[in-house]
Amino acid sequence: MVQKNSLIVIGGPTAVGKSALGLELAKKHDGEIVSADSMQIYRGMDIGTAKPTLDERKAVKHHMIDILDINDEYSAEQYKDDADIVIIDILKRNKLPIVLGGTGFYIKALLFEHNFGYAPKNQEIRDKYNNILNKFGKEYLHDLLKQKDFESAKKIHPNDTKKVIRALEIFEVSGQKKSTLAQKEQKKRYNFKMFILCCDRAKLYERINKRAEEMIKNGLIDEVKTLIKNGANINSQAMQGIGYKETVEYLKNQITKYELIELIKMRTRNYAKRQITYFKGIKEAIWIDIHNTLPDIVL
């Protein structure tokens, strides 16, 4: 039985089946879906983000999708503030908010009190690390973070240089590790039930590989061409997403189509591993195997 003024949260790695379960739950419990996906927030990024279809959005109301232009930047703090407004409205209408997505830091920002600032911004420090990045590369920059804050380095991919630099900045400004500061603040902001979907690793990778192939067949390359034609900055936050970054490389003739597909598969599998690691850090989460316990536990 779903408690009043509570949330259902469905997380898990990409391609595990979150969307299908969310739709089923929403129909069963008179709910509305609040997306927690850092790529589906962008207009025009549909195929590469596996965005819900128009029919699915007609069947169940979705929020936090198509809210930004392609060149806009967005943070977990902004997500929390915007999602709060949506959730309050859903609850006021006596419906069930179902937070659904694979962007763990969005979900964690929404569910727990968190000092997003950790430390004030310092442009001088950022410039210093950007210069290091330009001179020595992202792996060198990531190694610096390992030396200062190994736990944060484990959670931040070397390609995500913006987060690497922010973690280094926090350490320099505050004298404390970002990972340590994050662990101090776990007060719940909502009453919620959280389910993390999982399955056998080999089966998950099969689903990921199949999705990557389907994205190409469904027109991902043309989607990226259209985005660029309409003014997308290939260096923007959105265009660094898996599938988009690789397609830009393909359009520049830097990789073949075969390499494009294989890169998307590999990087998505690696991303799924990081998602699983991140969600394991949320002790309130209930892990359920989609092939065994899903109907009994959730529905």
**Biggest sheet, open or closed, and with what strands and sense?**
6 strands, parallel
Summed over residues and divided by their number, the pLDDT gives a mean of 91
**Name of the CATH first level of the largest domain:** Alpha Beta
Strands ordered across the widest β-sheet: 3-2-4-1-5-6
- Gyration radius, in Å: 19 Å
Element string (H = helix, E = strand): EHEHEHEHHHHHHEHHHHEH
Fraction of residues in β-strands: 5-15%
**Which CATH architecture of the largest domain is right?**
3-Layer(aba) Sandwich
End-to-end separation in angstroms reads 9 Å
- Please bin the fraction of helical residues: 40-55%
Counted by DSSP, the helix tally is: 14
Name the structural class: alpha/beta
- Tell me the CATH topology of the largest domain: Rossmann fold
Q: What is the β-strand count?
A: 6
Provide the low-confidence segments as ranges.
none
- The CATH superfamily label of the largest domain reads P-loop containing nucleotide triphosphate hydrolases
Characteristics of this structure?
alpha/beta; Helix Hairpins; 3 domains; Rossmann fold; 6-stranded parallel β-sheet; Histone, subunit A; 14 helices; 299 residues
